[in-house]
Fold:
Amino acid sequence: MKLNSFYSRKLHSLLGVIPLGLFLVEHMLTNYEAFSAGKEGFIEQVLWLNGLPLVLFLEIFGIWLPLLYHGVYGLYIAFQAKHNVNNYGYIRNHMFMWQRITGVITLIFVVWHFSQTRLQVALGNIGHEDLGSHMYHEIVSNPLYFGLYIVGIISASFHFSNGMWSFLVSWGITVGPRAQRVSSYIWMGVFVILSVLFILALTAFTDESFALSTLESIQIQIG
Structure:
């Protein structure tokens, strides 16, 4: 049982970095196009990604199955964990606790975000090119949804960044107090950068250009 638990946790840790960590960064960069390049740049990036060969295969085996394992096993870890922040107030104990809390929040957020975006594309309710306007109409224009997205974004960014610190320790890459302290500074910096870029991307969807569907935009340009 201990051996099985060891390998299960190692797989859980590895999937959190590859491919899920890479997907988080890629998702941030794609959405940041809405801020840096506007609606046209965002649509171009989305269409390029969805035009990749075997994109459905990549999504299933590179995102959704790893996410299912990481999320479900992560819930098991979170509810089995024993928090001792009341007895020991060290920063790492608090980070351990928040890693579990943000993991639960992130999983709920990802499922909700998937149901509002990628699932709607799969069901044929919207096209890839209209994801930006869908974000405007269904999410950022609603103050409650906008606030929940901010919470989800910050939780996901923290969970990934702090998880990277833990990954480097558990895999024997950062050995010793000094290396772990430096790593902590680096990954908390990454957490801040990711959060800021994600929030900038989210606020970009409040621009009025995203209020129109792609077809409406084309009709206006022609007219």
